[in-house]
Amino acid sequence: MENHRKNFILMVAVGMYPTSALYAFGGDALFKGNYTRLLVIVVLIVIILLLTRFVHQRRVGEATKKKNQQKLKGRETSHSLRPLLCFYS
Description:
Low-confidence stretches: none
Radius of gyration: 25 Å
Distance between the termini: 62 Å
């Protein structure tokens, strides 16, 4: 159980660091009026959001593909008999 807690803390720290850093540097750039740094921060945030969306869509696509393959695997026997049943009907 202790190993699970260490992995969880590591995942949270790694996951939060990029967003926290962008938030801190973005606020600093905004208050100091450094619009070049602010523009870079905004571009990085957009890239992170697009990357998150891409990963999510890829996971959903893989799950859907796997689900469809399981459905087709279950229907293989009924599909193999269908032409014979149609011919003799």
